[in-house]
Amino acid sequence: MTVMEQRGAYRPTPPPAWQPRTDPAPLLPDAEPYRVLGTEAAAKADPELLRRLYAELVKGRRYNAQATALTKQGRLAVYPSSTGQEACEVAAALVLEERDWLFPSYRDTLAVVARGVDPVEALTLLRGDWHTGYDPYEHRVAPLSTPLATQLPHAVGLAHAARLKGDDVVALAMVGDGGTSEGDFHEALNFAAVWQAPVVFLVQNNGFAISVPLAKQTAAPSLAHKAVGYGMPGRLVDGNDAAAVHEVLSDAVRHARAGGGPTLVEAITYRVEAHTNADDATRYRGDSEVETWKQHDPIALLERELTARGLLDDAGVETVRQDAETMAADLRARMNQDPALDPMDLFAHVYAEPTPQLLEQREQLRAELAAEADQEGAQR
Ligand SMILES: Cc1ncc(C[n+]2csc(CCOP(=O)(O)OP(=O)(O)O)c2C)c(N)n1
């Protein structure tokens, strides 16, 4: 039989029945970012929680302003301000139980402080020290991560390990919109969904990765839609609505704790200031865009809600403001003290077993420091 005859005789058999492994519909994010403030849902929000959120937002903004001022005085090497993003920062810290873990990016100092880390210790890395400054185990806060998205697989590993050990722990990992283009983001979400790890991923979509706008970062309908591809729910929330972010993250944490697996939350927000004090944002975005976002300010939104419901008056605003000033004054005073630095620390903790080269360099520095001390002694 010729090949053509064989082909003619071939009748394809129907493939085995196929259906999606899970129904994608419940995983899809809402069409609009979820909002609470200024909507009917606000009436159900706990007044005490709203007041707490408000106090933390005001303190957070003051912290950002103080830290930025410290960069200008040379007390901090660099500071990535989260002004405009305080709702995400504060809510992320408040939704966790003490036994849970927070995995922040470099922009999330406010979340770290809101979780209980000393405000000065939280700035150690940004001051240019060689270590994180705080004990990650004390408040269950991983080091502020500068390499984009590397904190995400760490969060998944910790959460998965905790579940294997039978520990009731949820990990909440924070990342920027730019960080979602990293391989680590993909790997973390994939592992988390396959293992059903108790993790919540919070993407703060603040519009830019330094100068790169979101449109150049992804063609996805939204970052929350990416969740569906991994088999986890994606949620979209107004990132400047502290009550909404708190509610969505609380739901996600509860879901993870109950064994329901991970959630990807995309919070739509805006970085009002430059990427860091070393950046000039006017080179890639216009003032009018910034002004539009300032009209949707997280503190103003919450203040309006609290005032309208009679939960906050002028005296209350003043008390919160004063508390924030006290915190800033303490931060300023302590950051203006020169830290006692030992140059020999450079060689500590590099390797468990120092390499011969490191030992050689350590001896060289020790000798130079000793010679310098002798010289100073002789001049006195
Ligand atoms: C792996 C890696 N690549 C590049 C950088 C340089 N970098 C620092 S911040 C940044 C932009 C990140 O933007 P985004 O994730 O949106 O977070 P945002 O700064 O807006 O909070 C880049 C590319 C880095 N820190 N790590």
How would you describe this structure in keywords?
14 helices, five-stranded parallel β-sheet, Rossmann fold, alpha/beta, 380 residues, single chain, binds thiamine diphosphate, 2 domains, two-stranded antiparallel ribbon
Describe the structure.
- The chain is of the alpha/beta class and 380 residues long.
- It has two domains: 25-277 and 286-335, 3-Layer(aba) Sandwich (Rossmann fold), CATH 3.40.50; 343-379.
- Helix content is 45%, strand content 8%.
- The chain has helices at residues 3-9, 47-72, 86-94, 109-114, 124-127, 136-139, 151-165, 183-195, 226-230, 242-257, 287-294, 298-308, 314-335, 356-379, and strands at 101-103, 171-176, 199-205, 208-209, 212-213, 234-238, 263-268.
- Strands 1-2-3-7-6 form a five-stranded parallel beta sheet, with helices on both faces. The protein has a two-stranded antiparallel sheet with strand order 4-5.
- Helix 2 packs parallel to helix 13, helix 3 packs parallel to helix 10 and helix 7 (151-165) packs parallel to helix 8 (183-195).
- The longest helix has 26 residues, at 47-72.
- The protein is globular, with a radius of gyration of 25 Å.
- It starts with a helix and ends with a helix.
- The mean pLDDT is 95.
- Thiamine diphosphate (TPP) is lined by residues 107, 146-148, 176-179, 206, 208-210, 271, 275.
Which bin fits the share of residues in helices? 40-55%
- Poorly predicted residue ranges: none
- The main sheet orders its strands as 1-2-3-7-6
Q: Which fold name fills CATH's third level, the topology of the largest domain?
A: Rossmann fold
The number of distinct helices, counting runs of at least 4 residues, comes to 14
In round numbers, the mean pLDDT is 95
- How many beta-strand segments? 7
What sort of overall outline do the alpha carbons produce when their principal axes are compared?
globular
**Proportion of β residues?**
5-15%
- As for the number of domains, it is 2
CATH level 1 name of the largest domain: Alpha Beta
- The CATH architecture term of the largest domain is 3-Layer(aba) Sandwich
Radius of gyration: 25 Å
